[in-house]
Amino acid sequence: MRYAVQWLRSLIFVVQMYVMLPVIGLTFLPWALVSPRGARAGCMAYCRWVRWSAAWMVGLRTEVRGTPPTGEALIAAKHQSFLDILVIFSAVPAGKFIMKRELIWTPVVGQYGLRIGCVPVDRGKRGAAIRKMVADVARGLQLPGQLIIFAQGTRVAPGAVRPYKIGAGVLYEELGQTCVPAATNVGVFWPKRGIYRKPGLAVVEFLAPIAPGMSKAAFMKQLEDEVETASNRLMREAGFDLPVR
Questions:
Q1: Which of 24, 73, 100, 182 is the most buried (most CB within 10 A)?
Q2: Strands 95-100 and 146-150, sheet pairing
Q3: Are 77 and 226 in contact (CB under 8 A)?
């Protein structure tokens, strides 16, 4: 019975979340059309709305730990569900994502993403995609902010193992910027797919910055070790039983 009630609450939450996306998008559209600041304000308003409504509708609270970067930086994050996107973006002043090119055509999301400086990448051809990603980012360096990349390239369910993609290492090496790793446990409460949202405390934790200048291989190893260790700790804190390997 308790599960059924929580599932129904989750369904209502998910429906209103998607209803509010075009509502907030249209509300901020006039400002977004004339200024990227307007687009960013609209995105920030939506992130805050979802975090606020999740807390009282399904009992899912969110928390940011560590020190989010405020200047130019690369953020290499663990990605488990849509929620970590919202929490990371709302924690930094000028976030912009490396995003899948097909998202350009998603109503509201695509248009606002381009306005805030997100970099669309075609993942069909790995080598070409990486070269284009670096070139697109280089052309956008005049837009200050925090560039966010999901280091595994996709959502990864809690307990699942996925390799870290070389794209984060290429950006770290080419841009010469400090990288701030970010760990999370949001997938314990908000799955990759499905309706059910589990009550609890979902956390995104910004870890100690990695200074520029490391080799790509050393950087990738340190990034994976730190993000996976911290994410596993957060998932255990949330009551998730990680499989023994």
A1: 182
A2: parallel
A3: no
Residue 63, strand partner residues: 203
Of the candidates 108, 35, 76, 102, the one whose C-alpha atom is nearest the C-alpha of residue 223 is 76
Q: Apex CA 87: angle with CA 66 and CA 102, to 5°? A: 130
Alpha helix segments (H runs only) across 79-215: 82-91, 109-115, 126-139, 167-175
Closest CA to 40 of 24, 64, 56: 24
Return the number of other C-beta atoms located less than 10 Å from residue 170's C-beta. Answer: 18
For the segment 112-132, the average pLDDT, to the nearest whole number, is 76
Residue 111 amino acid letter:
Q
Specify the pTM.
0.92
- Residues, the chain, total? 245
More confident residue, 113 or 133: 113
Distance CA 228, CA 137 (A): 26
State the Cα–Cα distance between residues 205 and 192, nearest whole angstrom.
19
| DSSP 3-state of 73 | strand
Lowest mean pLDDT of 8-22, 96-110, 114-128, name the range.
114-128
Backbone angles phi, psi at 80, to 5 degrees: -120, -30
pLDDT of residue 135: 73
Burial of 172 (0-12, 13-18, 19+ CB in 10 A): buried
Tokens of 58: 């399904």
Alpha-carbon distance 4 to 137, whole Å?
A: 46
pLDDT digits (tens, 9 = 90+) for 48-82: 999 999 999 999 999 999 999 999 999 999 999 99
CA-to-CA separations, 142 to 91, 139, 149, 181, 241, in angstroms, rounded: 22, 7, 18, 23, 44
How confident is the model over 183-208, as pLDDT tens digits?
999 999 999 889 999 999 999 999 99
